[in-house]
Amino acid sequence: MKHISVNSAESDNPHRDRTPARKGRFYVQRFILILLLILLLPLSSSVAKNVTCSRLPLLMKSFLANHYAMKDLTGEVKDHAVDQMIKIIDPTKTLLYESDVASLKPFLRRVFASIQAGDCAALTPVYDILVARARENEAMVRKILGSDFKLDEKAELLIDIKKRPYPKTRKDKEELLRKVVQFQIENNLLAGVSLSEAKKQQIHRYELQTMRVIKRSPEKLITTAAEAFAQALDPHTGYLSPENYDDFRIQMQLSLEGIGAVLSSDNGFTVIEELIPGGDAERSGLLKPKDKIIAVAQKNERPVNVIDMDLRDVVKMIRGKKGTQVTLTILRQAERTYRFHVTLKRDKIYLKEQEAKITYETRSFQGKPYKFGVIDLPSFYGDEKVNKSCYEDVRELVAEARRQNVDGIILDLSRNGGGLLGEAVRIAGLFLGKGAVVATKDNQNQLTIFVNGSSSTRLQGDDVEVISFPADGPGDVYSGPLVVLTSRLSASASEIVTGALQDYKRAVIVGSDHTFGKGSVQTLSRLPRDLGGMKVTTALYFLPRGKSTQKIGVEADVRLPGLFILEDIGETTLEYPLPAQAIAPFIEMPGKAAPRWKPVDKAMTDELAAKSAARISKDEKFLEIIKNNGEAAAKKDVIRISDLRKEMEKEGGGKQQETPTEMKKKAREQQTPYLNESVNIVLDMVVMEMNRTMPQALRAGY
User: Fold this and answer.
1) Contact of 59 with 226, CB cutoff 8 Å
2) Residue 394 belongs to what H/E stretch?
3) Among 350, 376, 404, residue at a domain's last position
4) Sign of the Cα pseudo-torsion (274, 279, 280, 282, in order)
5) Residue 222 belongs to what domain range?
6) What's the pTM value of the predicted model, to 2 decimals?
7) Does residue 304 sit in the same domain as residue 282?
8) Beta strands 269-275 and 292-298: pairing type?
């Protein structure tokens, strides 16, 4: 089991300093979880791959037994579970009618009650409705795309699913599908596909949808029910299917065992989007982006046709243990269309693109050059088994920046959605040195404080557990000017680091109005018999001054225009978020000792904000961002075909779909003005400090 902050997990082996009273409670709680998981084991030795009806009640009990706030299967939880299940089976509101939803809600409520008794037979009528509606949609799309089909240049579609109602009548559904298909056809046309081919692709798209709904089967709806129940408790609790559990593990470890290719699904074909450096797919020199995989064969086995197969199933066939072989049948469409076979050896693939990295920026002031380091940290990753740690990576980057004699550092967390709690605590220590970084409070109101080095916090006692990490030596701690770049996408572990640096007045926080606002901690447990995993919210975390970031995030000291419309991004926009709380402060200030860094005060941040606002008011790229945000807000979640055309013309009119490499380049270009302004702000910090100290220096004989 692993403690998770954000959408991720804490290191398994921190240095723990437990008090005896707390230790007992900790193991009792963990025993409850383990006991319930053991009860999920079947008596036979066969390996199960899906949650079965007999196991589902125990899985639900385990979620409730360990959740921070939701302890009983109340009527509210059942209602939430029903709502979530309907959203999972019809996420776009194009499948079910309003009357279907009205009849399904009380029916599914009874289903969740019967599931508690181990009876899942009632899911069969749900399956029958889904199959009937999928076949109906396929027939409607065939009719819409008949010989008389014409593209409607004035077509508009409400893309905010929350605001879109379910269709009431068959006519309403036909009109909704007509609009959806119009935009799907337009996307194909803008990508260079002919109208006749675009129509064929759309019909096949709905054929695949029908096929996948049929394959879902009443038994597979049990997994859907498990997912819906977990999501009913709070936005970050979840049941992870075996495939989702593997994806989550890859996200945290930045590694996987496979051939090293990024795959996508396009109209029934599995397409190679990108070759990962170091993987056998790239080393072979035989594969290219846009190649289509049409069959997969394991060593000494016959090829399996994967056309029209779900992408997850194809990925499962291609991934495998290091050193084993897999043979792909490739369809390549170039000057001529031909097929060939490629045998590749699976290996450990490291996702270098997502590791921490540093770049350097220079600025001049009054003829003197200044150098700044920009550390980009996309996530708080780590895996002790393969000696992978973002803390170790960032520590090396900070050491490199010190050797380069930088005048300041920018820590870019603007795209960082979180990760391992222990890694976040240690990275904060690279800029703070010794001291308490974050505290968590569990469902028994017991506090755990995470510190670097020894702790002198007054909150220690019988009801407080202290988890300490080795403190960095003075030579490893950076004490110069520091800016943290954030956004509404900065969540959880990012907010822990950002909030701690702000509470200790260590850094200037630059970004949109505030960060995401995810202040909860999850525990990740792998379920036995390859059933996947369960991620349960077990605690809230608190910053050194006692505040929680839950729902409110960390406010920026210097605000920049948001790259997105902000109202739709954040914890408060999610369903069933936990309320914010507060505890007594546990911040460890140096007292009468001289601070290790120049403390950031309000006078400084006010001056920095004023200087930044003056620059932004004249910056063409920021002015364009502000203009685009205003136009997007005015459209009120409605997209028009004419807007798609204008956007394509604005992007240069190219008809080829962007490759992952091109999309990454575009993302970097969008980030450029924010990074540039962050560098300008840290230069302002250096100049302001220089101006404050210059008179005294002159009196000293300089």
Assistant:
1) yes
2) helix 390-403
3) 350
4) positive
5) 2-237
6) 0.84
7) yes
8) antiparallel
